Amino acid sequence: MTPEDFRKHGREVVDWIADYMEQVDQYPVLSRVEPGDIRAQLPDSPPLQGEAFDQILEDVNRVILPGITHWQSPNFFGYFPANTSPPSILGELLAAGLGVQGMLWTTSPACTELEQHVLDWLIEMLDLPATFHSSGDGGGVIQDTASSATLCALLAACYREQSDNPRDTRRLGIDSWQVAYTSDQAHSSVEKAMMIAGIGTDRLRVIDSDENWSMRPDLLKQQMDIDRSHGLKPTFVCATVGTTSSGAVDPLPAIGAICRDHGAWLHVDAAMAGTAAICPEFREMHDGLELADSYAFNPHKWMFVNFDCDCFYVADRRPLLRALSVLPDYLRNRASQSGEVVDFRDWHIPLGRRFRALKLWFVIRSFGVQELQQKIRSHVEWAGRFADWVSADDDFELVAPRSLNLVCFRHKGGDDMNRKLLDALNDSGDLFLTHTQLDDRLTLRLSIAQTSTTLEHVERAWAAIRGTATELA
Ligand SMILES: *Cc1c(COP(=O)(O)O)cnc(C)c1O
Fold this sequence. Notes:
Strand order of the largest sheet: 1-7-6-5-4-2-3
Order of helices and strands: HHHHHEHHEHEHEHEEHEHHHEEHEEH
CATH class of the domain at 100-354: Alpha Beta
Oligomer: single chain
Low-confidence stretches: none
Bound molecules: pyridoxal-5'-phosphate
Helix content: 40-55%
């Protein structure tokens, strides 16, 4: 493909995406294909000769599109959002066009410095603690996902030099007496991080949550005291701001104080909810964050930046570097040795890295802080209205307090009824909802955060839920 062909087909693809944005509300939200349907339409072997681009794009429509679940549909209310937006897509395109590999400052200075700068902007936008700012001992970096951020935080915690533990962790590995803590509502990535780090899930203490699904600090403290009395070392705590099931917020001030007492690292996972802190009125959920050693949230969930983009902050970068930096001779360079630059390869697991800051920069500049605030505010307001409709209905109930843009609710007719309701709604193609388990009962979740969702879509979703429930009853 020559640059001239690229110009032509590039325009076609941008047109295709623009058409998709205009039409995405027409598609059944959940893909209707059966397992194997997509592969059955693909040739067994790759083509020996290049094919015309028109043909390839045609197959996108014919083969691929039916196998898409439309995350960008305004009627997508499932799991968590993964919203995107036109400026984000263009930033992504430009990143691909530049094809930069930003492992070291010297391999593309703009890739590192824009990232540092935009992550500092976000500290101001979300009013995060100043300790995370790149001008001090800490700093922010873009990770692929919140799962990777949790793993990096866990490793940093285990590698942090402690006066009571002068052991060389880099050479000898993680101590067998180090233990970690999280709540029974935490994301599964905490358990996975324990497995990947080689610590094992036996050394993850799962602390019970209270009636609002927030971690109980009294039980955390009790468990740490017990562990200490057995000669174990409380090393890492992962608290959640906005749990995946119900959007619960763990009490950071109490948890942070306990972590300080025990010298344990506090990581705060705000993957979904963090974005809400753009609005001053929602910042209360971050109370106590100044006690955290690390923090992560995903602009790729609720901030109109396409996957993948997780912002990970540490208050002190030294333990992270101790855990993750190795310097082979072929990467030595003058800039790194000068000590004046940051090499982000030392801040995450892969060596290589994409220029992800571009799409984040495009989104923040193109929307502006005020429009971002206004969109987030609307999502939260509509979730509040939806929760009111549920509360006012004799057949439905809220299962957890409404949290920002997430409503957990159920039909009072029991698990079977809720399962049938969920299947019927999702089979209809008109909207997509997912479920969770709270109080050992099936619970429906409605998460409002798609870029093109309006109040009308939310009203239609409620009408469909009500109507379908009546038909099934
Ligand atoms: C979505 C979510 C995760 C996982 O996010 P990834 O970026 O896909 O790893 C972790 N924690 C919370 C609280 C989440 O909402």
